[in-house]
Model the fold of this input.
Amino acid sequence: MNKEQVGRFYDVVWTEYVPEYESSEKHWALFFAPKEVRGKSVLDGGCGTGIFSVIFARNGAAKVTGIDISPGSLETARSLAERFGLKNTEFRREDMLHLPFSPDSFDIIWAWGSVHHTTDPFGAIAGLLRLLKPGGSILLAVYKKTKVTFLHEAVRRTLIRTPRWSWTALSKVMAFFLAPVVFLFKRREKSRKGEKLEELILDWYFVPIRHHYTPEEIRAYLEGKGLTIEKFLPASGRFDSSSNFIFKARKPASAGR
Ligand SMILES: C[S@@+](CC[C@H](N)C(=O)[O-])C[C@H]1O[C@@H](n2cnc3c(N)ncnc32)[C@H](O)[C@@H]1O
Done:
């Protein structure tokens, strides 16, 4: 499985889905205040359909660069920024593992749910850290490894071997059977409006590449690189999801790389 397959996958799944603005911004505000962002250069790594890029841009960032491997998602991100009349965003098709920016280019780097879809998540984080200015902040949301991850992974690894043309139908069948379980165990949030269970299933079980980590692994990596952890959330908060954990960390002002 490679990045092209991931790009094609996200050209089908989520391409037009934009998470609800208000709940996303409320969630964003757990990590950043407008005064911290004002006049800053921001990289949104794996920006998808661009909701967080737009939130940074509307909260005073001087320039937001959203990069993603999926052209379809970038198209949606551009339309979203246009809809808000934003002039300080740029969306580019780039691979997170080969980003063509100079070291120390960005004050803030936001990578929500993206490094774990690359072939080399720690390589992706290392690359992002190189682009972060000394004293800058990075935010990473990463899939959590739990006791049942191996079961989900066994299902995913089986399903991604099925023919691509069958994926939509398979995800609908799974959604049909899982809907009562989801209904019983999980209150669907208002913020998930417009998001279908079959799309969640596609994203969860059919994505070509996904890696899972424990918070301790990511913490050790960031601290090993000399960063200071500023905030840790054991679960996403956005959409009441427990699949991701989040670190916000600061690069030392006089950073060795
Ligand atoms: C789960 S989505 C998250 C999107 C967005 N950050 C959000 O929170 O709405 C993961 C995104 O990472 C992107 N991605 C995966 N591998 C990538 C890579 N190697 N380079 C750039 N983007 C990548 C996918 O195309 C997808 O849009």
